[in-house]
Sequence to fold (333 residues):
Amino acid sequence: MSSAEPTNGLRAVFAAWAHEWIDGWDRFWFTPQLPHTLGLIRIATGLMLFYSQAVLALRLGDFLGETAWIDNATIAALHRGDFAPADGGRSYLWLITSPTLLAIHHALTMVASACLAAGLLTRLTAPLAWFLQLMLIHRLTGTLFGLDQIMTMLAMYLMFAPAGSVFSLDAIIRRRIEPTLRDDRFRAWLFPAATPSVAVGIVTRLAQIHLCVIYLFGGLWKARGTTWWDGTALWFAAANHEYQSLNLTWIGRFPVVFSALTHVTVFWEVFYCALVWPRLTRPLVLAMAIAVHGGIALFLGMITFGTMMIVANAIFVRPESIARLSEPQRLPA
Fold:
């Protein structure tokens, strides 16, 4: 046997490995996917955007304009870095002082969010809803919370995919005008079909990775605190009257339980990014997400945040499963 034969064998093995890796990379990012999961997330995100903006509308002057608790001058100073390092946030809402104009703008913001939820002209209203929400939260520095960040994140991804092609008014309109769309490319784009697309696949993967990063850094941040190491973090959360919506102090009688749950929570957050991908462990990871965020919603007074985190975790639900439940007649057995 010549010395070239082992070399050729190694080359063949390496070439096969590289081809398999590249093929897997392509399948991960560019496999067309149905839009059904994004359709449900779109509804929940639009409704939560509308709800949070409606709550702001009840006392709009307390949050926007010259009479706000954090007025325009203070917001500008915060973003310039007068009090702390500049955060780069920008919003034209700094420049609007008229209560009437602010009310009109906020009404437009709520209309865009309602259209996103209903799936009306989603190709246009989804980016509009995201942009108006972004301008709003940049102005609301000092009253910005995790709920706002998660809603804005999901709205950003939804605008890059045909999320309004299913469970929407757009879908109803498309069915009615379908015969006329063959020669009308703009309307065919405006009212997309609920078929597998690469755009849905890419958006889904980006949102999944984004959620993994959120949990990884959330878990690592928790691991810096002593209460997460000694197992008392859950007890201190339960005993904090500022966040209590239901009495959880009875858990103090079971230190082994709250200590174990504390450590399990940290483990789940840190390793979410690894365990959520395999089919074997994904159901357990998502069930844990429902338990953790459901507990936050029920017991710690953060119903909206807990709900939106469960919605965000739905990005890992296969769209085929949702399609089979909603449209069994359209899918092969």
Q: What stands out?
A: The mean pLDDT is 89. Residues 107 and 134 are 15 Å apart (CA to CA).
